[in-house]
Amino acid sequence: MNMIQAINSALDVMMARDPDVIVMGEDVGYFGGVFRATAGLQEKHGKTRVFDTPITECGIIGVAVGMGAYGLRPVPEIQFADYIYPALDQLVSEAARLRYRSAGEFISPITVRSPFGGGIFGGQTHSQSPEGIFTHISGVKTVIPSTPYDAKGLLIAAIEDNDPTIFFEPKRIYNGPFDGYWDKPSQNWSKHPAGEVPTGYYKVDLGKAAVVRAGEAVTILCYGTMVHVCIATCAELGVDAEIVDLRTLVPLDIETIEASVKKTGRCLIVHEATRTSGFGAELSALVQERCFYHLEAPIERVTGFDTPYPHSLEWAYFPGPVRIGEALKKIMKDA
Amino acid sequence: MASEHPRANLPTLSLHVPEPKFRPGDAVDFAAVGIPPAGEARRPDTAAHPGDFTDLAYTLVRVLDDDGHAVGPWNPRLSPDMLRKMLRNMALLRAFDERMFRAQRQGKTSFYMKALGEEAVAVAATHALDPDDMCFPSYRQQGILITRGYPLVEMMNQIYSNRGDKLQGKQLPIMYSARDHGFFSISGNLTTQYPQAVGWAMASAAKGDTRIAATWCGEGSTAEGDFHSACTFAAVYRAPVILNIVNNQWAISSFSGFAGAESTTFAARAVGYGIAGLRVDGNDALAVYAATLWAAERARTNQGPTLIEHFTYRAEGHSTSDDPTQYRSAGEPNAWPLGDPVRRLKDHLIGLREWDEDRHAAQDKELADLVKAEQKEAEKNGILGHGLHQPLDTLFDGVFEEMPWHLKEQRAQMLAEETASGRPWDRK
């Protein structure tokens, strides 16, 4: 399966298992979604469980919160993460706080799916990575898969979870892993081991990172598309890096991070999102606080620049192999 | 910056900024409000097409006339027992408000908001709903809880953030949550409950349930984007929901003109969405009851949502932190042409010879004593500021279903710091 098929399969499996799971969003019903993630679900599960909505993100999330309060398990889709901002009030002030402010009387077991990230010439409003906004909010979980296998397992776990979850899908790797070499032919998930996806039910636990490459020289913390760019860059440079795919940003798998950096003594953080106050800042602070006496070089961050996501200069902006390679050389200088 | 080359043949533009009729010190004359006579508005079939409500969006559904008689097609013909029950709940709400307002002034809590003059809006509407219909209120519908028999002492515990507070002191006073009483957790963020109520109603419909939802917001809050998204969703999916707008003329210091009232009514918003819209005398408990019952029947028979504008007046300040004499004439509350909802229902019952002034005075005394006794009970659980009423570490409970490591760490750090500092946090 590619990542779209894996997500579709997760939704299908959960709708079949739990009559309270419903899917809603712009174009998700009859049409099956602009990325085809919900294709066939309406036909199979019916219009009252998979339906198109008006174009109003605050409405989609507000309605989902109400459905969650009733006892349903809504999986609303926001067509692009760049368009999640109109729903911020409902997510931040309502979904995230409902359990806390009602002392558990009401909960918000919603899973907000949204394609995110760049590398597709999406320009300013089809490329953003706003995960840092949500990791800053108490009461929501933030999940970002990097493979079809994880996408399905994590999405099933998120739907079953009783807390609100933001599920960002890196759209650059919907159809195949992307190593950052935009001028080379694109790859397909069918040739990747993580493209092997069971058709039935399984879970990948939230809050657990994956060490996708074991190594001794440096720890690379990354997620989403960047996992594949980091793997390719390290292979190319021959760096024995330990690459950690965080998968869940909140709650974070701090044990895996700490163990890795204490072993390697070096840490590189890579994300597409803009740098200032991005999630990398939190990661850097945590590593510094917990691994200070093990660090042999300053922690480095390779991120999107502090600019809106550009159109024509996309590959200058995107944290690709060149930028990651330079950062690795800097970290490894005295090794 | 203005154009450097203004065209001489065009008049200059001017910006209209609304201004209320009366400011502090002004004499008040509400003659221009234009109150249609009671009994005049027609009562359509509950299955009527949403396009057939334009006239009703610009008039007022009224049942009680100036002499206290119930007249016209909206007269719900309630039994005297029911009328007395409604009157009692409205009077109880008023007594509760009075006592809690005073408790705030006495420093027993940080904050309170009264519903003075708006008692009919929540109480009469709740009487017309079934007990298991779900309410998504704003902060001025405490009348729902009172009508549904939620213990006053529980409300007070919440207001005092004390040991008995079921919300563990996590919420600002009056932001109640009472799931068992069909009362959704109140949020400080305005109108967020509107799409949530629509979603709850859609869920009820999707599951083939029979329960409906009702929500309330002020006229000022209709300007929020959530109001628009909720109305759109409600209309598109014909959600079994009642959308109440409490038009009490004031949003803190801003008069209703800043929400659009100079050019239209709030009920008229319904016309554009394709929702049945009613505009109701909000100080007429029988009109509020009848309109709510009508809307509930419409919702229960899958005819879709109803938007009801309750035309009323916020007789008190916005909250204990507000002083209305700074922005409106002190004469307004008494001059309001729709009068006082409690007095109007009382006069009606007296006119039916089912009530009298002595019984009313006795009831007021009984309710004041009741509230006082409940307050004494609540204060046994403590009042705000008298030490900590919840264990310190409950601060971290309920952020997530299960506490993640980072909250456990923060909790441990907080407790260690407090212990090391020797501060007497265990004082109760």
TrEMBL record, chain A:
Going by the UniProt record, its keywords in alphabetical order are: Oxidoreductase
Q: Which InterPro entries match?
A: THDP-binding (IPR029061), Transketo_C/PFOR_II (IPR009014), Transketolase-like_Pyr-bd (IPR005475), Transketolase_C (IPR033248)
Q: Supply the CDD domains for this chain.
A: TPP_PYR_E1-PDHc-beta_like
Keyword hit for Phosphoprotein: no
Q: Does the keyword DNA damage apply?
A: no
Judged by the first EC level, this protein's enzyme class is: oxidoreductase
Please report the stretch or stretches of sequence annotated as the Transketolase-like pyrimidine-binding domain.
1-176
Could you tell me the Gene Ontology terms of the biological process aspect for this record?
Answer: branched-chain amino acid catabolic process; response to nutrient
Provide the GO MF annotations for this entry: branched-chain 2-oxo acid dehydrogenase activity
Coiled coil spans: none
Pfam families named among the record's database cross-references: Transket_pyr (PF02779), Transketolase_C (PF02780)
Query: What Enzyme Commission number(s) apply to this enzyme?
Result: 1.2.4.4
Q: Kindly list the cofactors needed.
A: thiamine diphosphate
**Name of this chain's protein:** 3-methyl-2-oxobutanoate dehydrogenase (2-methylpropanoyl-transferring)
Automatic annotation (TrEMBL), chain B:
Pfam families found in the cross-reference section: E1_dh, OxoDH_E1alpha_N
Cofactor(s) recorded in Swiss-Prot or TrEMBL: thiamine diphosphate
Which InterPro entries does this UniProt record tie to the protein?
Alpha-ketoacid_DH_E1_comp, DH_E1, Oxoisoval_DH_suAlpha_N_dom, THDP-binding
Which keywords has UniProt assigned to this entry? Oxidoreductase, Thiamine pyrophosphate
Recorded catalytic activity of this chain's protein = N(6)-[(R)-lipoyl]-L-lysyl-[protein] + 3-methyl-2-oxobutanoate + H(+) = N(6)-[(R)-S(8)-2-methylpropanoyldihydrolipoyl]-L-lysyl-[protein] + CO2
Output the GO biological process annotations, alphabetical, semicolon-separated: branched-chain amino acid catabolic process
**Superkingdom classification of source:** Bacteria
Q: Where is the Dehydrogenase E1 component domain?
A: 89-383
Keyword Oxidoreductase on this protein? yes
* Protein name per its UniProtKB record: 2-oxoisovalerate dehydrogenase subunit alpha
